[in-house]
Every structure is written in structure tokens, then in C-alpha cells.
Specification:
- The two termini are about 25 Å apart.
- The radius of gyration is 19 Å and the shape is globular.
- Strands 1-2 form a two-stranded antiparallel ribbon.
- The longest helix has 26 residues.
- It has about 280 residues and is mainly alpha-helical.
- It has 13 helices and two strands, in the order αααααβααααααβαα.
Length: about 280
């Protein structure tokens, strides 16, 4: 349809499409989180196959970062978010904001099956829900913004857009962070993604792989799911101190972002093109 659009224009059109899809999914009766998490990829496919038709060439698909696995980053991408989310619950427990009450089963299975169940949940997230987001954010959008804005601005812009994308599902449906004040939930998730985005994006660019982003995202979400099922709040502040968009998580990702920005300043690494 439009074969000569500038990267920044593509990014703007993509962002508009993904927000339209997000609002549409949010107002569908009995909507679900998986459908919502697939909207960034759906928007990318609309761009590749209909709007720009870049999907007609191998280079259009190669830019998404699917061809490289980034294996050497996998352990880091698994451990860092898991530890950060665990720290948030540990801190909340330490200050008395919650207690740990281990249920008799996990996801309906005996605890002896816990490693297998969690592994299945993790792999499933990497291949479906997390990839549904990351193929759009860090696979499609981030390279466009890097090539038009430079790496630093692109990392923050992608994180901000990612954060704002959560607002429709929080305000228009009852399925996400319904236990928090909706306006505080929106604020916390936007700030959280603002600093999470540069961390995931930094790794995605250096690994030339969107799989590393999906693994990071999955480790974050799975650890949150596991610990949320064991935590019993004793204070309202627990909802804002522990969890995926909590103050502790925000501070941790903020520190990692500062570290990453300092590394960029020493490397003269405004990435103008992606090595796929």
C-alpha cells in the first residue's frame, strides 16, 4: 500500500494501530489477557502485510529478530527479572506488608510437579503471550525508532509506548490489576515499562534476537504469577511494593537503565541500523 514510508512514520502508524486494537480487545465482553497480549504482533503483521508490505521481502521479516536465538543471553534474561520480582516480594514480606501462605497445590498440581509445571508455563509464555508483545515492541517497533531517533531515545520511547498500551486493559476491563486503584495501576505500569523497556531493548539489540526479549518478559511474568499465588497482603501498600509494577521493581529496573545508559555513553553506541 505505502512502500516508501519513513521509519518514524511507520512507527507512528504502528502505534496508532496497536492502540486501536488494544481498545477494541479491552471492550470485548469476556475478553482475555492472551488476546490482548497478541495485539502488538497483530499490529506488526498489519504493517508488514498490508500497510507497507515489507513482509513481501526476507529483509522485512529478518528485521524482527526471529532468526537468531541469542543463546548466550538466555540465563541472564531468565535470572535478572526473576530475582527482581522476588526481591519485591521479599521486601514487602520484610516490612510486614504481606505474609507467605503456600497453598496445598500449584496450578492444580502437587508441589512435586512444580518444576515441570513452571517450565511448561515459562516455555508457553516465551512462545505465545510474551512473544505476542515482544515481536511487536522489540521486534518491529524498536528497530524503526532506533533508525529514526537513535538508540537512547528509542529505548525510552518503546518503553513508554509499551506502558501506555496497558491503560485500556486496566481502565476498560476487569482482568488486569483489578486489585489496585486503577489510576495508580496505570501510573505504576507506565513508569515500570519506561525503565523496563531500555533493559529489554538493550539486550535485544545486542543479541540481535527478539527471543531474548520474550525470555526476559516471560521470566518476569512467571515469577510474578508464582509469588502472587503465595502472598497474602496484610496492608494495602503490599499491592504497590510487591509485584510486576511495584516500587521495588521500578527502582531495580531504573538502576539497570542508568547502568545501561552509562555503558552506551562509553561505547559511542547510538545504533543506526540493526545487525540481524
Amino acid at each position: 500500500m505505502f512502500s516508501n514510508l519513513h521509519n518514524q512514520t511507520k512507527a507512528l502508524i504502528y502505534t496508532a494501530i496497536v492502540f486501536i486494537l488494544a481498545i477494541g480487545v479491552s471492550i470485548v465482553p469476556n475478553t482475555n489477557s492472551l488476546l490482548y497480549m497478541l495485539t502488538p504482533t497483530a499490529a506488526a503483521l498489519i504493517m508488514l502485510l498490508i500497510v507497507t508490505r515489507d513482509g513481501r521481502s526476507r529483509s522485512g521479516w529478518a528485521a524482527l529478530g526471529l532468526r537468531k536465538c541469542g543463546f548466550k543471553w538466555w540465563l541472564l534474561c531468565t535470572m535478572v527479572p526473576a530475582v527482581i520480582v522476588a526481591l519485591s516480594y521479599g521486601f514487602a514480606w520484610g516490612v510486614g506488608a504481606l505474609v507467605i501462605d503456600v497453598p496445598p497445590t500449584y496450578a492444580g498440581y502437587d508441589w512435586t510437579a512444580f518444576p515441570i509445571v513452571v517450565a511448561i508455563q515459562f516455555v508457553s509464555a516465551v512462545l505465545t503471550s510474551s512473544l505476542g508483545e515482544e515481536l511487536g515492541w522489540r521486534g518491529y517497533l524498536l528497530p524503526l525508532l532506533v533508525n529514526s531517533l537513535g538508540e537512547r531515545k528509542a529505548l525510552f520511547a518503546t518503553g513508554l509506548i509499551h506502558g501506555l498500551w496497558h491503560i485500556p486493559i486496566i481502565l476498560l476491563s476487569p482482568i488486569y490489576h483489578q486489585d489496585q486503584n486503577p489510576f495508580l495501576a496505570c501510573l505504576f505500569i507506565v513508569v515500570s515499562c519506561l525503565f523496563l523497556g531500555p533493559v529489554i531493548g538493550y539486550i535485544r539489540l545486542r543479541s540481535s534476537s527478539v527471543w531474548t526479549a520474550s525470555i526476559f518478559h516471560s521470566a518476569h511474568n512467571v515469577m510474578w504469577s508464582v509469588l502472587r499465588g503465595m502472598a497474602v497482603p496484610t496492608s494495602g501498600i503490599a499491592l504497590y511494593v510487591a509485584g510486576d509494577n511495584s516500587i521495588v521493581v521500578i527502582l531495580c529496573y531504573m538502576l539497570l537503565t542508568v547502568w545501561g545508559m552509562k555503558r552506551l555513553s562509553h561505547q559511542d553506541a547510538d545504533v543506526r541500523s540493526i545487525n540481524t
